[in-house]
Design a protein that fits this description.
It is a single chain. The protein is an alpha/beta fold. The protein folds into two domains: about 210 residues, Alpha-Beta Complex (2-enoyl-CoA Hydratase, Chain A, domain 1); about 45 residues. The chain contains twelve helices and eleven strands. The strands form two sheets. Strands 1-2-3-4-6-8-11 form a seven-stranded mixed β-sheet, with helices on both faces. Strands 5-7-9-10 form a four-stranded mixed β-sheet.
């Protein structure tokens, strides 16, 4: 599937159970115009809602994974006093999308080919795993233009790298290359240009082989663990594992184990 809009294009291909979403043209270099964020959200939602898709790889083109908003466009909206409406519209698309990504049982992997900046950084961090190519760059870029962060970056990044590393990243307006990002834990793998898409696909396929409840509950429990007392979290785990016990995937898993065969989860 190829979605076109002027100089904006999003390519979606499906390999077995993994969808590869490639942001090209201005959807990569200017991801956060009103048009581009709409196209990006629609492409990701289409894969989230596709019952044949279990894993999703998101990548960009050339120098850009997803470079955030057009700064020249900001000037226009400031001058005509519609900047608040513009920011409201963009976050109104991006933030619900990030929630859908985090809450979905689908496994999402960011294959970071180039710059992931601003809201584009949030898009990468919202994925379940990140693979960086040799030209990957992670940047917040908010402080340099007088903005505060959005896109869930201040919630997602500290969970990967810790609070103080995140403070330095945002308040020193740092830019991380792939080795540095991997060293901090912001990306899982740093591989060659030829390997990073196959590596991302492999992770998406491997992590998505399990049952839908297993994937959704595991993602959810890891997201909420830092905001719950242990006793509350134990009760949360209890409710979810009890629910898992009623699923067809649990019956299939037990049968497969006892019969020494691979499980075929839904």
């Amino acid at each position: 599937m190829l979605i076109w809009d002027d100089q904006m294009a999003i390519e979606t291909t499906i390999k077995e159970s993994v969808a590869i979403i490639k942001m090209t043209g201005k959807t990569a270099s200017n991801s956060f115009s009103r048009t581009a964020i709409k196209e990006i959200a629609e492409a990701i939602d289409a894969s989230l809602n596709n019952q044949k898709v279990r894993g999703i790889v998101i990548t960009g083109e050339g120098k850009f994974f997803s470079a955030g908003a057009d700064i020249k466009g900001f000037k226009k909206y400031i001058e005509d006093e519609t900047i608040t409406d513009f920011i409201h519209d963009l976050t109104g698309k991006l933030h619900p999308l990030i929630l859908r990504m985090r809450r979905s049982p689908k496994i999402l992997v960011a294959a970071i080919n180039g710059a992931a900046a601003g809201g584009g950084l949030g898009l990468a961090l919202a994925c379940d795993a990140r693979v960086a190519g040799p030209n990957a760059k992670l940047a917040a870029s908010y402080a340099g233009i007088g903005l505060s962060p959005d896109g869930g970056t201040t919630w997602l990044l500290p969970r990967l790298v810790g609070d103080q590393v995140s403070r330095r990243f945002f308040l020193e307006n740092q830019i991380w290359g792939p080795k540095e990002a991997q060293g901090y834990g912001a990306v899982d793998h740093y591989v060659s240009e030829e390997e990073f898409i196959p590596k991302a696909i492999k992770i998406a396929a491997t992590w998505s082989q399990w049952g839908s409840h297993t994937r959704e509950a595991t993602k959810h429990l890891i997201d909420v663990q830092s905001s719950q007392e242990l006793e509350v979290h134990l009760n949360h785990e209890r409710l979810l594992i009890e629910a898992a016990g009623t699923t067809a995937d649990f019956r299939e898993g037990v049968d497969a184990f006892l019969n020494k065969r691979p499980a075929n989860f839904e």
